[in-house]
Amino acid sequence: MPEITVTEHLLSTQKSSSPHATGQFTALLHDLIVSAKIISRNVKQAGLVDILGGTGRINVQGENVQKLDEFANSVLIYRMRACGAVCAVGSEELAESLIFSSRGEEQPRGPYIIFFDPLDGSSNIDVNVSIGTIFSIYRRAEESCGDVSEQELLRPGLEQVAAGYFVYGPSTMLVYSTGQGVNGFTLDPSIGEFLLSHPNMHIPETGAIYSVNSAYYPHWDERTREAVDTFARPADREPHSLRYVGSLVADFHRTMLYGGIFLYPAEERKPKGKLRLMYEASPLAFLAEQAGGLATDGADRILEKRPQEIHERTPLFIGSARDVEKVMAIYRRRS
Q1: pLDDT averaged over the chain?
Q2: Is 283 helix (H, G, I), strand (E, B) or coil?
Q3: What is d(CA 279, CA 134) in angstroms, rounded to the nearest whole number?
Q4: What phi, psi does 203 have (nearest 5°)?
Q5: N or C of the chain: less Cβ packing under 10 Å?
Q6: What confidence tens digit (pLDDT) does each residue in 221-255 have?
Q7: pLDDT digits (tens, 9 = 90+) for 282-303
Q8: Half-sphere exposure of 243 (CA within 13 A, CB side)
Q9: Cα end-to-end distance, the chain, whole Å
Q10: Average of pLDDT values for 72-95?
């Protein structure tokens, strides 16, 4: 089998599949990949250089900022500003979106808006657990002009033109979709290229693994406890195995490959959930549905939720279609 790079794969599918995959989109993806290579290099040096530990700052999410968080965020913003394909950036680490003005600048601005979680799972950095970068890409309407408005940022996940994530683990992987299925690429460090390693990825219809932080069980409502018990303590079959890394990218990537369900429900202290809709839930929901899975907040399809603000949070149940449907049935019955 010939070794196909991610750029070759994108160019070969542009001709027949995606009207949005323009030359500017290819430039955007190229700079995302460069960013990921730089981040991956520094992640693999953690412990050897002064890149571990916190900065002492608290971000807009109320979380301790790690040094690698700050580094990854700055790399991505620099590359997105420089590539010329992006007009606005939203980062989980920033209180406000960055609008790249088209006025008085030599560098032209393209039609794409990108949201990203620069380093998901960063609380696990110090213990050498797999972490990742999640991204979500939208395109401005063709008739839009001038600087991006707030309403252009607050769009449902259905309008994404691409989404994906990088995993920084034993190997560095890119998994992404432009709305024509999901493909995975693994970085070959000997040539510095992402090569197609997981073509046409599909989530199994059901799985044998559920992933949830069960320490929050006392804080869930009755319908959530019943939903989790459906997998943990079923009456009619063997229970699912519990696997929980605590790094969303790592937990979701396992679900993509093996099936099952990832659950991050609301709880009494976080009635709106914890995960960010635009930076985490929507891009992963896009991938899940493209791979034959489902994603819901218990009541509504994640991709249909229109955010009211860029850091909006949501509960998330995502993974194999049949497993997610079980949760949805319980929530409907007990609503």
Answers
A1: 88
A2: helix
A3: 7
A4: -80, 130
A5: N
A6: 999 999 999 999 887 788 899 999 999 999 999 99
A7: 999 999 999 999 999 999 999 9
A8: 18
A9: 51
A10: 93
- Check residue 69 and give its pLDDT: 83
Helices (H), the chain: 6-14, 23-44, 67-83, 150-153, 222-232, 248-258, 282-290, 321-334
81-85-90-94 Cα dihedral, nearest 10 degrees: 0
The two structure tokens encoding residue 126: 């110090």
SS3 80: helix
Q: Which residue has the tokens 């609008």?
A: 99
Q: What is residue 52's predicted lDDT score, i.e. its pLDDT?
A: 52
For the chain, helix, strand, coil in percent to 5 are 35, 25, 40
Which structure tokens are listed for 55?
């900065």
Residue 106 has what pLDDT? Answer: 54
Tokens of 297: 């907040």
The total number of residues shown for the chain amounts to 335
Looking at per-residue pLDDT, the higher value among 249 and 54 belongs to 249
Please report the pLDDT score of residue 147 as a whole number: 81
Q: Are the C-beta atoms of 82 and 75 separated by less than 8 Å?
A: no
Query: CA-to-CA distance for 151 and 307, rounded, in angstroms?
Result: 10
| The amino acid at 192 | G
Q: Which residues pair with 210 in a beta bridge?
A: 242, 261
Cα separation, 244 vs 7, whole angstroms: 33
Q: Which helix or strand (DSSP H or E) is residue 161 part of?
A: none
